[in-house]
Amino acid sequence: MITSLRIMMRSQKVIVLCSIILSFLFIITILAPWIAPNDPIAVNLANKLQPSSFEYPLGTDHLGRCTLSRILYGARISLGFATLIFISSLGIGLIVGTIAGYKGGWVDQVLMRLCDGVMAFPNLLLILGLVGILGPGLKQVIIALMLVQWVYYARIFRGMVLSLKEQNYIAAAKISGSSQWKIIKKHIIPNVLPPLAVMGTLEMGWAIMDISAMSFLGLGVQPPTPEWGAMIHEGKSYIRTNPELMLYPGLMIMLVVVTFNLLGEALSERFGVKRR
Amino acid sequence: MGTYILKRIMAIIPIFLLATLLTFGMIHLSPVDPAEAYLSAAHIQSTDEILAQKRHEFGLDQPLHVQYVNSIIKICQFDFGISYLSNKPVWEEVTYRMPATIQLALGSIILAILVSVPLGFLAGIKKNSGIDHFSRLLSFFGASIPSFWLGYLLIFFFSVKLDLFPVEGIGTWQHLVLPSVTLALPLIALYTRLLRASVLENLQEPYVLFARTRGIHEKVIMGKHVLRIAISPMITGLGMNLGKLLTGTIIVEAVFSWPGFGRYFIEAIFNRDVPVIQCYVLLAAGLFIFSNLIVDLIQMCIDPRISRKGGQSQ
Amino acid sequence: MRRLRTERSNVLTVSDLQVKVQTKEGATTLVQDINFELEKGKVLGLVGESGSGKTVTSMSILQLLDRKTTTIEGSITLQGRELNGLDDKEIRGIRGKDIAFIMQNPMNSFTPVFTIGNQFVETIRSHTALNKKQAKELAIEAMQNVNLPNPAKLLKSYPFQLSGGMLQRVMIAMAACLQPSVIIADEPTTALDVHNQLQVLRHLDKIRSEYGTSILLISHDLGVISEMADDVVVMQHGRIVETANVYELFDNPQHEYTKKLLNARLSIKHEEPITHML
Fold first, then answer.
1. Would the pLDDT of A55 be above 80?
2. Choosing among A18, A109, A128, A147, which should be mutated to test the B contact, i.e. which has the most B CBs within 10 A?
3. How many CB atoms are located within 10 Å of the residue C153 CB?
4. For B97-138, how does the pLDDT look when each residue is reduced to its tens digit (9 = 90+)?
5. Given this model, what pLDDT does residue C278 score?
6. Residue A4 above 70 pLDDT?
7. Residues 6+ apart with CB under 8 A from C215
8. Chain C contact for A175, CB < 8 A?
């Protein structure tokens, strides 16, 4: 018992720390247009490949653009769209999961088999396939990610609806004073939030990885839009002379993904949720 | 045991059909008309006449279900059509590039197994020791680091700075090292974690205690009894993650300019070379199904409960 | 009339045994002031409810407790040889050979992925210089002694293919085949139905009479104790509350706790009478 308490306390600290880091990241993302020292897409060939200076705190890239500004704006792409994907796949998952749980029968079976199929396939492959049909571009990558990530949430919501159905019978059977809504609030929602939170943090991390991977391959963001994965791709030609061009964006990706993963793990420990 | 294998093979057929249906649907749901895509990739000006002719050539004017059946028949003969870009049979292009990817994949799997088995095993036995902490750190970061960045980091340190390995390309075993390591790291992260967790679980089991009461040497208990059982989830994980391996090759081949099938696939996506895309997706599905089967077979050999009880013991 | 207990007739002597475990809050005593003797060819019953310390006591005899967190103080001697504090190699030589252990749940105790024969032969060859063939023959002989049908076939079977009763008998065969001085049987009948319970007790008794093996019989089932034990030790909360000859214990219990245990037993109806089989 004491051991689990200690785990909870340690997880609590990690959760708080990660949340602080993520909040900070989100804040600078939102404030990017105001705090970025320069225009991220302003080309200035005379200034190309400069080291760190006061005007360009992280130096410039091969087109003379300010690296720091590009990183800040890149955060908007990564974090912003990851959030968008999270919200939309949550929504899709809510709808599909609710339908599956509510209708039951063969509708449920078909939908769940579909989920199984999608979950079994590696993310990136499905996304590549979808981008193959829809064509390269950031919009297509986002759509592809949305179409792939909802399955995890669908399962959770389906479970919620199933237990809700059971509650209906119980509530009808016993003459209880509390309303349906109270039962939902008190019993169902606390059971749904932890897996959603765990899944959400992990998914955000994966989404950011996938967006940058696709952009790295040239299939996501198109130039001159700044994005961390694309920046690594651009920086690779200068690995001998200016390794920092690919170092900084990579560090950012890692920082964000590590924080999300840590948060996800700590949440799953704290709330006793099993990970995928 | 024979019936079990047969049952598993029978179960594959519907999945295979589903995969073909999906890729078929992919092509026809795509906003791009295959005939148009072909013409634009071949840089032929498309007039209505030429377009109609091409569509007839591709059989696009036939009813959908006929097209579908035709495509399945062709797939069974390994006929995936002609690449829009190169005008050569897709299968020819694939087989030309496959060996490089297979080499990379094999190198990574072998490396991953060689590292994860001892690491995960020791981490589980000596919980909270130095090696345990190391394995947990490795597992965590291995799963969080983007592989394309890792690739470049390795190139930077080992090629540029230390000049130990070539930066890119294929040819000697030195060319294989960095790409394999890059591809293997996420696998190592996963397998080590799986094995460690499994070992920890098994250490609590009664059979370990019983073996001790019989006076069996601790090393034998760990190495013979526990390892045999604990490795099972890791093998399942291996099979289920061959898909991750495949997507990994795409990225690694891009980073290291490795002339494999993954790189070809990306080019095809850029060029909207639909037959190649279709072939890749189908092959990926096939690999996925096949690997699950292989893993099941291996499980059957390791754990006698599965075959004799008809797979219920899991 | 009390018989004089000489040192020589005592096979296993436990003196002032105390076991402490280190937890996050500090050191907790699991058992203390444990004293008992096991005579040659006799059955000592160890009675108590769950958590009374029976298993801890038996585990400490074989030094099977986690060395990093538990400390064992006191003396445990097997035919004059001190067991407490022995190094790994020496205690391993004793486990399974001089002191054998029979586990509570036979269905879980065997390693599921190896055949019975593999594990039986493994045990034999850990303690003797016999080759595989000889070890197999010894195993078959031991299994015949517990009336297991078709031992050769059983050796090739996997644990999940056998019933609980048969597995328990295999365990007994494994325990007896190297002719140990002591067999510790931890709740050997709890996981079995009544018919198999009788069989198990009968086999244990046969081993006792044929080889002169002493048996430390741990059980919370007073029926089993009354059938088999010569002497009884009653444990509660990690201490011994009463030690007596089995007849005295049942006819004339001294300690309050013993009385409570006996009363609880008498008020439960037996479905079938356990007939006196010895």
1. no
2. A128
3. 11
4. 889 999 999 999 999 999 999 999 999 988 888 889 999 999
5. 43
6. no
7. C42, C43, C44, C182, C183, C184, C185, C204, C207, C208, C228
8. no
- Taking alpha carbons only, the member of A272, A257, A246 closest to residue A82 is A257
Q: Which chain A residues contact residue C25 at CB under 8 A? A: 2
Q: Dihedrals φ, ψ of C158, to 5°?
A: -95, 155
Q: Do B247 and A229 touch (CB under 8 A)?
A: no
Residue-wise pLDDT for B168-183, tens only, equals: 777 788 888 889 999 9
Tell whether A3 is within 8 A of chain C (Cβ): yes
CA distances from A2 to B127, C28, C51 (A): 19, 14, 19
Q: How far apart are CA C207 and CA B265, in angstroms?
A: 73
pLDDT category, B42, cuts 50, 70, 90? low
Amino acid, single-letter form, for residue B209 = L
pLDDT at A182: 64
Could you give the angle at the alpha carbon of C172 between the alpha carbons of C134 and C149, nearest 5°? 70
Rounded to the nearest integer, the mean pLDDT of chain C is: 86
Q: Is the pLDDT of residue A174 over 60?
A: no
Q: If you average pLDDT over every residue of chain B, what do you get?
A: 82
Question: Are the C-beta atoms of A63 and A121 separated by less than 8 Å?
Answer: no
Is A10 near chain C, with CB under 8 Å? Answer: no
Q: Which residues contact A251 (CB under 8 A, 6 or more apart)?
A: none
CB contact under 8 A, B272 and A122: no
**Tokens representing residue B302 in the block:** 């390791």
The pairing of beta strand C70-78 with beta strand C10-23: antiparallel
**pLDDT greater at residue B55 or residue C177:** C177
Alpha-helical (H) ranges within chain B are 2-29, 34-41, 48-57, 64-76, 90-125, 130-144, 147-154, 173-203, 206-213, 218-220, 227-240, 242-256, 261-270, 274-302, 304-309
What is the rounded distance in angstroms from the CA atom of residue A63 to the CA atom of residue A49?
8
Structure tokens at C277: 């089989």
ipTM above 0.85, yes or no: yes
Supply angle C-alpha A3, A4, A8, rounded to 5: 120
CA dihedral B305, B309, B310, B314 (to 10 degrees): -50
Can you tell me the distance from the alpha carbon of A230 to that of A253, in angstroms, rounded to the nearest whole number? 12
Does residue A207 have a pLDDT over 60? yes
pLDDT of A126 strictly over 60: yes
Which of A47-51, B40-44, C92-96 is modeled with the greatest confidence? C92-96
Contacts 24+ apart (CB under 8 A), B294-301: B294/B239, B295/B235, B295/B236, B295/B238, B295/B239, B295/B240, B296/B8, B296/B239, B297/B5, B298/B235, B298/B239, B299/B232, B299/B235, B299/B236, B300/B1, B300/B4
Residue labelled with tokens 């992919």: B26
> Three-class SS of residue C83?
coil
**Position A274 confidence tier, pLDDT thresholds 50, 70, 90:** low
Best of B213, B222, B232 to disrupt the C interface by mutation (most C CBs within 10 Å)? B213
Residues of A in contact with C24 (CB under 8 A): 2-3, 6
3-state SS of B144-174 is HCCHHHHHHHHHHHHHHHCCCCCCCCCCCHH
| More confident of the two residues C3 and A64 | A64
Instruction: Determine the residue type at A191.
Output: N
Query: Do C25 and A6 lie within an 8 Å CB cutoff?
Result: no
B84 vs A84, more confident = A84
Q: Is the pLDDT of residue C218 over 60?
A: yes
CA A3 vs CA A189, A269, C24, C242: distances in Å:
27, 12, 8, 36
Give chain C positions within 8 Å (CB) of B212: 64, 95
Q: Report phi then psi at C123, rounded to 5.
A: -65, -45
- Residue B216 has its nearest CB partner, among C110, C122, C158, at C122
